[in-house]
Amino acid sequence: xxxxxxxxxxxxxxxxxLALALALLLALPSVARAQAPAIEIQAIRQxxxxxxxxxxxxxxxxxxxxxxxxxFAEGFGATGLAGERITPDTxxxxxxxxxxVTALAVMQLVEAGRIDLDAPxxxxxxxxxxASAQAEQITVRQLLAHTSxxxxxxxxxxxxxxTLADHVSxxxxxxxxxxxxxxxxxxxxxxxxxxxxxxxVSGESFGAYVLRHIFSPxxxxxxxxxxxxxxxxxxxxxxxxxxxxAVRRQLPLEMDRLPTAALMSSANDLGRFMRAELxxxxxxGVRVASDSTVAAMHRPLVQASGFSYAMGWRVSAIGSEAxxxxxxxxxxxRGKMVLLPKRGLGVVVLTNASTVIGxxxxxxxxxxxxxxxxxxxxxAPSVVSLRWMLIGVAIGIVIITVLQLRGxxxxxxxxxxxxxxxxxxxxxxxxxxxxxxxxxxxxxxxWRQAPDLTVxxxxxxxxxxxxxxxxxxxxxxxxxxxxxx
Length: 485
Known about the structure:
Blueprint: H1 3-34, H2 41-55, E1 59-66, E2 69-77, E3 92-93, H3 98-111, H4 140-145, H5 164-169, H6 189-202, H7 206-215, H8 227-230, E4 239-242, E5 245-248, H9 258-262, E6 264-265, H10 267-278, E7 282-283, E8 286-287, H11 291-298, E9 302-303, E10 308-309, E11 314-318, E12 321-329, E13 334-340, E14 345-351, H12 361-373, H13 386-413, H14 418-439, H15 443-449, H16 451-475, H17 479-484
Antiparallel strand pairs: 1-2, 1-14, 3-6, 4-5, 7-8, 9-10, 10-11, 11-12, 12-13, 13-14
Helix pairs in contact: 2-12, 3-6, 3-7, 13-16, 14-16, 15-16
């Protein structure tokens, strides 16, 4: 080898070493990204088990993800089916977490140029109309942000075979609370309308669209949009907390409400969904949305009470950490997803129990786990747990009922008293009309949400009416006869 060849060989070798060093330097960021942050697994496990035990919740599934993988996935408790254990792959009904999926479906069609966010919804649904003329101005963006002005308690369609089209038709006689775009008013009918828009624009049923364009591409193998598929996958049995005890209660699956409350998924699958959100719409080489689309979905559009609302997501701080999140509440299931975008972390908690009283276990768990993985201390356990709060309510109900029974017995032989009779009848009216109005439920929904309270309210109202009628009866008798009757 001559001098020139040696020189060229040295130069070539040096270049190879430089290239290798440059490649390593370029790879460092991705290596750093691949390393999971230090997650205190034992702290998560302890926090979940303590909260679950204190609240009396039968089953919980928890998953923690980074952009690049799952760092914690565990099931706690039982499904309610012959004592089968909850696992991270156990499907639950998602409630309003379905809205985050619906928002992605809409934004996929926006990205494809088939929907314009600022176009009136009537462009895609000419049959969409309401009692207020301003409803014609409602845009797709306003539906996504719950700023359409549609009331929270707008009526739904009735009947066993109702569809999304029926729910849209049910809004025809409804007046807007306020002009579109003025303020946030969380109302599930917004997402029923959006689901129908997805159907009309895509030419597919909403469930079929979600399966084909979101669940399947993201590898969400334990996620469903129809009852026939989930029956083979052991859906966690729902429970309602009645007088401090978790009682199994399965309600009919509302397949007509998929866009807003009825999609089904597991904690592991929602972990994949959140990873795609954290990665700007891509997972395992499959892209379901662009980075800019995901960013737009997480960008606040309107200020609400204590949080901002984006598109299918709420935005607020959890502890000291900025978070994008959404919960789901049904009469027998509750859950919550939390994204910590700056840290590239996500948490999902699913539970198979619900109650209309107290703070949801799922939401406190999700927020607490989010605080743990972001280096914060989770909230200290409440002095009075959810279970004991419900037991306290039950004790109060028993005391009131005993007092009412004593009142009935005394009214049989009590002297006439019209004021006392009026007082009892007013109490009964408050049970029948006032309490449902205060809770925001009709009697049908009261029975779905809280059958224990509903039964007690009926009993309390009947006892009140009975006492009042006895007092009125006695008031028509002479005092001596009233005392002897």
